[in-house]
Amino acid sequence: MSLVTPSPDMSAMGDYAHDWALVDVETSGLVPRRDRVLSVAVLTMGPDGEQTGEYSTLVDPGCDPGPVEVHGLTEERLRGAPAFGQIAGRLGALLQDRVLVAHNAQFDYDFLAHEFARARLHLPVTRRLCTLALNRQVDPPARDMKLGSLAAHYGVPRTRAHDALDDTRVLAGIFRATLREAARLDLPLPFVACPPRQDPKFAPQPPKTPCAYRNPGRLEPGGRLVQGMKIALTGQTATSRAELVARSVAAGLNVMSSVSGHTSALVTNESASGSAKARRAAAEGVPVIDEHAFLRLLGSVRAGTPHQAAPAGGRSAAVVPAPREAPSAVPTPPAAGGPLAGRRVLVLGGPHEAASAARARIVELGGSAAVNLSRSVTDAVRLVDGHTDRRLPRIAALGLPVHEGAWLASAAPAAPPRSEAGQRTDAPRPTPPLVLPRGGVVDLPVPAPGEELCSWRATATWASRGRCAVDVVAFVLDEDEQVTFDEDFVFYGAPENPAGTVRLLTDGPAEQSFDLLLGALPPASRRIVVAAAIDGDATFGEVGAVQIGVGPGHGGAPLARATLDAATTERTLILAEFYRRGPVWRFRAVGQGYDHGLDALARGYGVDVES
Fold first, then answer.
1. Strand order in the sheet with 546-552
2. In the structure, how many helices (H) and strands (E) does the chain have?
């Protein structure tokens, strides 16, 4: 019997009515390719919002169950439970032809996909929906976006946290309430297509130990190898490739899988073979040596310069232009306590330049500029053609004040109180995130001694546009503003770096996030640049504003956010960067655009990109 009170019929909600499979898994760890499912629960729901089925079971993972203090699943409790392969068929039948729904859905989806793959079965899920992402769009006045906080906000009873079945029942109540809120706001549901896990881009990458030395540059004619040099190999060799790589790594060299302008030397016995690496080396002027010469040079590799902490406030010159270093003190947001303090304003209509200027003015007056309609929006500003915005009727129905553009030119007097049909007007909102202007910086809290490393989540959101497909990417850079190896370029085709410290999450067609384990990054990693790019001939002038926010991972309250739309003809936009300053990691809102594509941006950071 379900503990959740039945909801009103949702079958009349059009785009919000589907067959759903709500899922929760408890796991032995956080890495799907390594850790295992310990318990799983599925609750099925019809288009009318009524529960149609329920199933839950413990699972014997055949390994250590991990953090028992979190999930309470000891080896004794799991002993005698079925293996995953024994329940996969029943799970598949429940998931078939339904949208998978979960809180932090990529986590549950990835664990199920890996378990199905281990059982040599296909996970029958073609679409998923994340209730965490959906609630970020709705933006209810909850303390944070964790399951317990949302349950308290929506009035859903919760009896056993981290119990898969109870969490799924709680999720059902939250999901019904969130769907109604999304319908009131006319928000598109953030469905994510789920390609088959056999797709090569989902293949786990083998661990790779970062080189401990800085790249000293190219091999000089007649010169010696130096620790930290980037070496690529191609073609047939008398010595096995594995042995060449092992000996190179042992000598302190950085063996790359491709050739770029930052490669120190290419090793090949077939320099005229016409291979992609040989062609690229010729184009870039990279020195080419044969296997015999390379083995001889390996016998006397010179000492290199180890990676070390950058001096406080210092940074190296970048190949790609970078924003100025911020002052040592974290800047106070403009007009703190100004006339728009505590207000979140949505701009409607206007050419991109005028809308961008309006959003900048909102921040100057102490407010926050919104990119989409949500529960947190308090006002709207209508510019030229704003009366044609499809959201205007919805804004009127919500009772939000709508101002003309001249309102921002004044001192922005206080607007009438917000009045929302069917909602409490006295519900206190939690402390809003810090609003950062372009170039604004905030320190990220340092974990206390003995405290578990914190995962940070950087989330980029924009208004959905039909023909503009936006990809969010990240570059993990050393003190020379270069990737240590190509796998430190994280994007849709390689959504996780080898160490698993930077991971791309696709939360919907207009939202993508990065989970970052900053405390686990090696000393060589000094900076993470988060950027957005548009494929094709569209520009960010057509996309409009992009919001970038940062907060603790897995539903924590956002710490800071910025709205960036200084781009017009640009096709790539650096959104933000995380960088070390002494023992502290800092987050900076950047908003710097380029007319060139993602390939040029990646090459500037030392990544080889095929033309």
1. 434-435, 560-564, 546-552, 456-462, 511-516, 502-508
2. 15, 26
Tokens encoding 148: 């317990």
Return d(Cα 545, Cα 170) in angstroms, integer: 34
Give me 505's structure tokens. Answer: 């999450």
The Cα 51–Cα 3 span in angstroms is 11
Interval 133-156 mean pLDDT: 93
**How many CB atoms are located within 10 Å of the residue 566 CB?**
18
Q: State yes or no: pLDDT of 296 exceeds 80.
A: yes
Structure tokens at 262: 């930052």
CB 474 within 8 A of CB 459: no
List, for residues 240-285, the tens digit of each pLDDT value. 988 999 899 999 998 887 787 888 999 999 877 778 888 888 988 9
- Tell me the backbone φ, ψ of residue 576, rounded to 5 degrees: -160, 170
Over residues 150-165, the pLDDT tens digits come to: 999 999 998 887 789 9
11-202 shares its CATH topology with 434-604 = no
CA dihedral over 135, 112, 54, 68, signed as positive or negative? negative
Structure tokens at 199: 């797709």
Token pair 């990458």 is found at 205
Please choose, from the candidates 161, 163, 98, the residue with its C-alpha nearest in 3D space to the C-alpha of residue 129: 98
Find out if CATH 3.40.50.10190 is the number for domain 331-432: yes
Extents of the domains making up the chain? 11-202, 230-298, 331-432, 434-604
- What tokens were used for 369? 């500029």
Question: H-helix or E-strand containing 56?
Answer: strand 51-58
CA dihedral (556, 575, 523, 442) positive or negative: negative
Q: Domain 434-604 falls in which CATH fold?
A: Lipoxygenase-1 (2.60.60)
Task: Find out whether 231 and 249 touch, Cβ atoms under 8 Å.
Answer: no
Rg (CA), the chain: 26
Cα angle 451, 457, 462 (rounded to 5 degrees) comes to 165
Residues in the chain: 611
pLDDT tens digit sequence for 559-571? 999 999 866 789 9
Could you please state the CATH topology (level 3) that the domain comprising 230-298 is classified under: Rossmann fold (3.40.50)
CA 36 to CA 64: how far, in whole Å?
Answer: 9
What confidence score (pLDDT) does residue 328 get?
36
Phi/psi at 351 (5° precision): -65, 160
